[in-house]
Specification:
The protein is an alpha/beta fold. It has 6 helices and 9 strands. The protein folds into 2 domains: 6-121, Ubiquitin-like (UB roll) (Roll), CATH 3.10.20.310; 127-240. It has helices at residues 31-43, 76-91, 138-146, 161-177, 195-199, 206-221; strands at 6-9, 16-25, 54-57, 63-68, 98-108, 111-121, 127-134, 188-191, 224-231. Strand 3 (54-57) and strand 4 form a beta hairpin. A 3-stranded mixed β-sheet has the order 1-4-3, with no helix packed on it. A 3-stranded mixed β-sheet has the order 2-6-5. 29% of the residues lie in helices and 25% in strands.
């Protein structure tokens, strides 16, 4: 049986408190994608805007949602939440999102119930275009290319920071299994699209700028991103040293007893 209503308990009188927070994801997204994105955005809400209820038993309904000690409503938390939500969208390849908000304060007896709504329009999601490896260590480059078929970065797949991180983890496992015991994530950098950076280059002639503007226009219509994995500046040479198996010693943890049975 579902709870029928939400009842606040131990709220601060004469101060508005957060009674309801809702996020609507607009735009042409598939059902599963929309729900997953909405769940992620809800996690990005500033803590004092999150409504935490528990199902309780009692009057006036058999079951109700108990909202205990709700936080005082502060409009600054709306801006903070929008910043956090924008950061999440950017990390998943949505670089042109629009987030609008509205709120109202509803007076019920001595309660000032604040209700907050967000409408999030993510925009078009970046997809991966060209993917490459350019490692200064020839052996690491060879290993990366030999195992390229298992890459997690696929052309036309959605861009996300988590996928880039997982790809680095995959490469590190390969390198460590081939003797590069001390190699770490910080030994690599991931370079992404630099079209916007190139546009502000004062050395470009007008024709080059025109070509870049045309490329940028195409990217706005069907946004893609190029990814190149490179090695960072070497700060510790031991990270690029290949380790080999040396002497092997076996120390048995129990003595071998002769069979005493006749």
């Amino acid at each position: 049986m579902a709870a029928s209503c939400t009842l606040p308990k131990k709220y601060q009188k004469d101060k508005p408190f957060v009674y309801k927070s809702e996020i609507e994801v607009a735009g042409p997204l598939k059902g599963n994608q929309r729900q997953k994105l909405k769940a992620g955005l809800e996690n990005q809400l500033y803590d004092s805007l999150k409504v935490r209820t528990i199902v309780a038993l009692g009057f006036p309904a058999l079951l109700y949602n108990k909202l205990e000690r709700p936080p005082v409503f502060d409009t600054n938390n709306i801006s903070r939440s929008k910043t956090l939500m924008t950061a999440l969208l950017n990390s998943q390849g949505y670089f042109g999102p629009t987030i609008t908000d509205t709120f109202l304060i509803d007076t019920v007896r001595d309660q000032q119930r604040a209700k907050v709504w967000f409408t999030v329009t993510p925009g078009k999601q970046l997809t991966l275009d060209s993917i490459g490896y350019e490692l200064s260590n020839p052996e690491l480059q060879r290993l990366a290319m030999e195992n390229r078929s298992a890459t997690l970065l696929k052309k036309s797949d959605p861009y996300s920071i988590s996928v880039l991180s997982a790809e680095l983890d995959r490469l590190l496992l390969i390198f460590r299994n081939n003797g590069y015991y001390k190699i770490v994530k910080e030994d690599f950098i991931i370079e992404r699209d630099t079209v916007l950076a190139a546009l502000i280059d004062p050395s470009l002639d007008p024709f080059e700028q025109f070509e870049l503007l045309e490329e940028l226009k195409k990217k706005r219509e069907n946004p893609t991103i190029n990814v190149m994995i490179r090695q960072a500046i070497n700060k510790d040479s031991s990270h690029q040293r290949r380790y080999y198996i040396g002497d092997i010693r076996v120390y048995p943890d129990m003595s071998i007893l002769e069979d005493q049975n006749p």
